[in-house]
């Protein structure tokens, strides 16, 4: 669950579009498999560099596809 400081970000149109684009990209690459186990289908997009109150406003961290990962519920 998102931390309180990130609530508005995760409900923003910018994040929703970024997340959807990343999922489409992963589906095109490998059918949307989990990037960690490569067995189960991906379920959640999360940030490799964890969002903090200090970096959440930085698009290079918060909205960069290079900082995203698509994992299954187990991983």
Give a structural overview.
- 35% of the residues lie in helices and 11% in strands.
- The chain has 75 residues and is an alpha+beta fold.
Q: Helices, strands, pairings?
A:
Blueprint: H1 7-10, H2 13-30, E1 44-47, H3 59-62, E2 68-71
Antiparallel strand pairs: 1-2
Helix and strand content put the structural class at alpha+beta
- Number of E-state strands: 2
Low-confidence runs of at least 5 consecutive residues? none
Helix content: 25-40%
Number of helices: 3
Q: Sketch the major β-sheet.
A: 2 strands, antiparallel
Spatial gap, N to C terminus: 15 Å
Strand content: 5-15%
Mean pLDDT, nearest integer? 95
Order of helix and strand elements from N to C terminus? HHEHE
Cα Rg: 12 Å
What is the overall silhouette? globular
Strand order of the largest sheet: 1-2
List key phrases describing it.
alpha+beta, single chain, two-stranded antiparallel ribbon, 75 residues, 11% strand
In brief:
With 75 residues, this protein is an alpha+beta fold.
